[in-house]
Design a protein that fits this description.
The chain is α+β, with helices and mostly antiparallel strands. The protein contains twelve helices and 18 strands. Strand 12 and strand 13 form a beta hairpin. The radius of gyration is 23 Å and the shape is globular. The structure holds fe (ii) ion.
Length: 425
C-alpha cells in the first residue's frame, strides 16, 4: 500500500472543520426558547383545538377572536434575531408612577369592602375574599398595589376576569411588558406602542403547550427543567413590578405555586453580610436567547443587564434581596469563584427557609371562575410546581406584567423588620 500523501492530513482537517460547522449549524437554535426547534410561528390553529374548555369559555365570553388560532407566537420575521437588537427593546428611561404611594396606608377602601382578609403566613401572602378585580375603583387599585408591596403576593379566588380587564389593570400599575418571543392572547396591539416587541401584553401560561411546542424535557425526573425558583423579566432596563397571573383552568390536585419574600430573605442575613451586599450590583439575564452578531455560530446568548443586588422598594422604602437562581449570573466586582459561592448561599436563603415562603393552591371554590395571584417581582421569587399530568388535568392561564422603576438602592432605607420595629435576631 502506498504511504499516505502529504496532502491527505490537510484534507482530513478541512473535512473535520466542515463537519464541526455542520454540527454547530444543526444545533443552532437561532431564536426562541432554549429548547425550541419548532418553526411554526403566528397563530396556532392546531393548538386551538387543545385549549381547555374553561379557557375557551372565558375567551368567548370576552369576545376574543380565536378564529386565526391560539396562542399567537410572534412571527419569525418580527422576532429580533440578535442579542443587541433585543437589548434595545425598552432600553431607555420611561415614566413610572408608583401607584402604591398614592394609597391610604390603612387601605380602608380595599380591605373595608372585602368579605374576608386572610393572611396565609406571617411574612408573605394574603387572600382577599369577596371582591371582583374587575370592579375595583382606582383608589382600591392603589391600595391593592400597596398591599402587594407589603405582603409580596395577594390572591383572589372566584374571579370573573377577561384578558382585556386583566390587561387594563396591568396598564394602571405600569408599562405592560410585551414580549418579543412569548406566546400571547390575540388582542389588538394599540397604536404607538413604543417597542419592537409585538406581543399583545397578555402572555399565555400553559405548560402542555410549552412542553410540546418547545420540546421541553418532560417526565417526573425532569420537572426541574420547566420549574424552579426565579423572578420574571429581571433583564429589563426597568424590570417587572406587579405581575398578575390569572389561571382559568386548574388541576383538581397539583399545579400549586410557591413564592418567597425578598424582604425577609434580606432580614435573614447577618448585619455583616447585609453591609457587604448593600450598594453592590449584579448581572441579570433574560429567559430567552438571541444570536451574537459578532459570532452567530457560537450559539445563542442571553440579554444581560446590571442592577443593584439589594434594592429599595419605592412604596414601602424597605430593602429587598434581589437575586434568583435562574437569572442572576454574577456579582460585579468579585472573582467568579467568590461570586458563585455567595450567590449560592443567597439563593439557598430563599429556597430553604419555609418561614419566608407561601405555597398556594389555585382551586376556586365556585365552578366556572378563575383565580388570580398578584405579586411584586421586585421583592420575590416564585416557583411553579409541575406535579400534575397534563394528559389528565390541564392548567392554563394568562399573565400580565407591569414594568416598574429603574432599580435603585437607597443607603438610608431600612429592612422590613427594622422599619416595623421587630427583633433583628
Ligand atoms: Fe415566572
Amino acid at each position: 500500500m502506498a504511504p499516505p500523501t502529504a496532502t491527505e492530513p490537510a484534507r482530513n482537517a478541512t473535512q473535520e472543520e466542515i463537519e464541526q460547522t455542520v454540527i454547530k449549524l444543526a444545533n443552532l437554535k437561532p431564536i426562541g426558547n432554549r429548547f425550541s426547534n419548532n418553526s411554526q410561528t403566528g397563530p396556532q390553529l392546531d393548538w386551538l383545538k387543545k385549549l381547555p374548555e374553561p379557557a375557551r369559555k372565558r375567551f368567548e365570553k370576552a369576545g376574543i377572536d380565536l378564529s386565526q388560532g391560539y396562542p399567537v407566537i410572534p412571527k419569525r420575521e418580527d422576532i429580533p434575531k440578535f442579542v443587541d437588537e433585543a437589548f434595545e427593546i425598552r432600553n431607555k428611561d420611561y415614566p413610572y408612577i408608583e401607584r402604591a404611594k398614592n394609597a391610604d396606608p390603612e387601605k380602608k377602601a380595599l380591605l373595608g369592602a372585602a368579605k374576608e382578609v386572610i393572611h396565609l403566613t406571617k411574612h408573605i401572602g394574603t387572600e382577599i375574599v369577596g371582591l371582583q378585580l374587575k370592579d375595583l375603583t382606582d383608589k382600591q387599585k392603589d391600595e391593592l398595589a400597596l398591599l402587594v408591596a407589603e405582603r409580596v403576593v395577594v390572591f383572589f379566588r372566584n374571579q370573573d376576569l377577561s384578558p382585556q380587564v386583566q390587561l387594563a389593570l396591568g396598564e394602571y400599575w405600569g408599562q405592560v411588558e410585551r414580549h418579543p418571543q412569548a406566546p400571547h392572547v390575540p388582542l389588538p396591539i394599540p397604536e404607538g406602542v413604543d417597542t419592537i416587541a409585538k406581543g399583545s401584553g397578555v402572555s399565555v401560561i400553559w405548560r402542555r403547550f410549552f412542553t410540546e411546542y418547545f420540546n421541553a424535557p418532560t417526565g417526573f425526573k425532569k420537572q426541574s427543567a420547566v420549574s424552579g425558583w426565579h423572578t420574571d423579566l429581571v433583564h429589563e432596563h426597568q424590570p417587572s413590578g406587579i405581575t398578575h397571573l390569572h389561571n382559568d383552568s386548574i388541576p383538581a390536585t397539583g399545579g400549586d405555586t410557591a413564592w418567597a419574600s425578598g424582604y425577609a430573605a434580606y432580614d435573614k442575613l447577618s448585619p455583616a453580610l447585609q453591609k457587604f451586599l448593600d450598594g453592590k450590583t449584579a448581572i441579570y439575564r433574560s429567559a430567552h436567547q438571541y444570536l451574537d452578531r459578532e459570532n452567530p455560530l457560537k450559539g445563542p446568548k442571553y440579554i444581560e443587564r446590571e442592577h443593584p443586588i439589594v434594592r429599595t422598594h419605592p412604596a414601602t422604602g424597605w430593602k429587598t434581596l434581589f437575586v434568583n437562581r435562574a437569572m442572576t449570573v454574577r456579582i460585579v466586582g468579585l472573582e467568579p469563584e467568590e461570586s458563585k459561592v455567595i450567590l449560592e448561599y443567597l439563593f439557598s436563603v430563599f429556597e430553604k427557609n419555609l418561614d419566608i415562603q407561601v405555597r398556594f393552591k389555585w382551586q376556586p371554590t365556585q365552578e366556572g371562575f378563575g383565580t388570580s395571584a398578584i405579586w411584586d417581582n421586585r421583592i420575590s421569587q416564585h416557583n411553579a410546581i409541575s406535579d400534575y399530568d397534563f394528559d389528565d388535568d390541564e392548567r392554563h392561564g394568562t399573565r400580565v406584567t407591569a414594568l416598574a422603576e429603574v432599580p435603585y438602592f437607597d443607603p438610608n432605607s431600612k429592612s422590613q423588620r427594622e422599619a416595623l420595629g421587630l427583633s433583628l435576631d
